[in-house]
TrEMBL record:
Pathway: Amino-acid biosynthesis; L-tryptophan biosynthesis; L-tryptophan from chorismate: step 5/5. PANTHER family: TRYPTOPHAN SYNTHASE, TRYPTOPHAN SYNTHASE-RELATED. Its EC number is 4.2.1.20. One of its GO terms (molecular function) is tryptophan synthase activity. The lineage of its organism: Bacteria, Pseudomonadati, Bacteroidota, Bacteroidia, Marinilabiliales. It catalyses: (1S,2R)-1-C-(indol-3-yl)glycerol 3-phosphate + L-serine = D-glyceraldehyde 3-phosphate + L-tryptophan + H2O. The modification N6-(pyridoxal phosphate)lysine is found at residue 94. It comes from Natronoflexus pectinivorans. NCBIfam families: trpB (TIGR00263). Belongs to the TrpB family. Keywords: Amino-acid biosynthesis, Aromatic amino acid biosynthesis, Lyase, Pyridoxal phosphate, Tryptophan biosynthesis. This is Tryptophan synthase beta chain.
């Protein structure tokens, strides 16, 4: 695949084979073309690249380390490593693309950043980027997620962002995206919609992937430097899929590395209480792009659920959809209980409290290690669990304390 892969996908129209594209109202077509043209021109310029590299090093604290989980590996087998994106400034991988998107907005002369958020990490990261560049920031968040992720809501407000509660539908991530898009449509000239994952109309899936590629580039070099070889398995959670695409991008050429994208099995795979888009979905159009999607009998996005607010989305990145069809990535599920178990196991064995989203990937790594005790596994620890503490203690504390 190599660099030719990244030049080939997406196509100039924003397609990853049959997925992606830009199914948007005419009022947005011209604005999306401006963003696309500007991204291609600006992102290749010396000034843009130099400023972004400086931000990553001196502000974000990159590179983040790769860490070997000695006690976790001793208990479950295998050799489990973590790419520590939880140590990235603001506590997750999200700042990688938020600083890039905000920098692009500055070059475009935009005044305001608008976005959705589920678990709140994208909202915090974008509010941070807005503060850094002196831009306004408006974050749309479902009322259910506001209640679950109270610490992140407070962080956004402290950083100066306006948090807009979304009270329709299931009041979670899908509805937050709907609300943010509606707000963006009111003034696409002075604002820019900074999508929080590798989803949405072209060019956003490509832009977010490109900004997140730093995770895979660093991880590949770091792992080889530590061990003299590449990992047997690469594991990342998948909601929209930005952290996974970031890590996978570093290993696209390495046939010996198996790639695993882990979706939320939720409470039950049988009665719809999950968000296993790649496992049970079928192609459809959502939020301006085509991808695998969980659908109801009318073909509309189906209700979804996950204990992890950042994973409860009925669609998925178009590039992930293509990689599934190409059989380049294996997509599998982890349910709520296994994710919560992994949350506590990593905390108590390694002193690292993971985000509930990342705990799904940790749980799958444990499962792989038990099945293949000689294997090496690299997990993208995409975020830290500070944001989840109140929710986990209140809901699950009696079972684990």
């Amino acid at each position: 695949m190599s660099e030719n892969y990244f030049k080939k996908y997406p196509s100039k129209d924003g397609f990853y084979k049959e997925y992606g594209g830009a199914f948007i109202p005419p009022v947005l077509e011209e604005e999306m073309k401006k963003i696309n043209d500007a991204y291609y021109a600006i992102s290749k310029s010396h000034n843009f690249i130099s400023e972004l590299r400086s931000i990553r090093k001196h502000y974000q604290g990159r590179p983040t380390p790769v860490y070997f989980c000695n006690r976790l590996s001793e208990k479950y087998g295998g050799r489990i490593y973590l790419k520590r994106e939880d140590l990235n400034h603001t506590g997750a991988h999200k700042l990688n693309h938020c600083m890039g998107e905000a920098l692009l907005a500055k070059y475009l002369g935009k005044k305001k950043l608008i976005a959705e958020t589920g678990a709140g990490q994208h909202g915090v990261a974008l509010a941070t980027a807005a503060a850094y560049f002196g831009l306004e920031c408006e974050i749309h968040m479902g009322e259910v997620d506001i209640a679950k992720e109270h610490p992140n809501v407070m962080r956004m407000k402290v950083l100066g962002a306006t948090v807009v509660p979304v009270s329709h539908g299931l009041k979670t991530l899908k509805e937050a995206v709907d609300s943010a898009f509606q707000s963006y449509l009111k003034d696409p000239i002075t604002t820019i919609y900074c999508i929080g994952s590798v989803v949405g109309p072209h060019p956003f899936p490509m832009m977010v992937r490109d900004f997140q590629r730093i995770v895979g580039i660093e991880a590949r070099e770091q792992f080889f430097d530590m061990t003299g070889e590449l990992p047997d398995s690469i594991v990342a959670c998948v909601g929209g899929g930005s952290n996974a695409m970031g890590l996978f991008s570093g290993f696209m050429d390495d046939e010996e590395c198996k790639l695993y994208g882990i979706e939320p099995g939720g409470r039950s795979m049988d009665n719809g209480e999950h968000a296993a888009t790649m496992t049970l979905g079928k192609p459809g159009v959502i939020h301006g792009f085509k991808c695998y999607m969980l659908q109801d009998e009318k073909g509309e996005p189906a209700p979804v659920y996950s204990v992890a607010s950042g994973l409860d989305y009925p669609g998925v990145g178009p590039e992930h959809s293509m990689l599934k069809d190409m059989k380049k990535v294996t997509y599998d599920v982890i349910d709520d209980k296994a994710a919560i178990d992994a949350f506590f196991e990593l905390s108590r064995l390694e002193g690292i409290i993971p985000a509930l989203e990342s705990a799904h990937a940790v749980a799958y790594a444990i499962k792989l290690a038990q099945k293949e005790p000689q294997t090496s596994i690299l997990v993208n620890l995409s975020g830290r669990g500070d944001k989840d503490m109140d929710f986990v203690v209140e809901k699950y504390g009696e079972d684990y304390f």
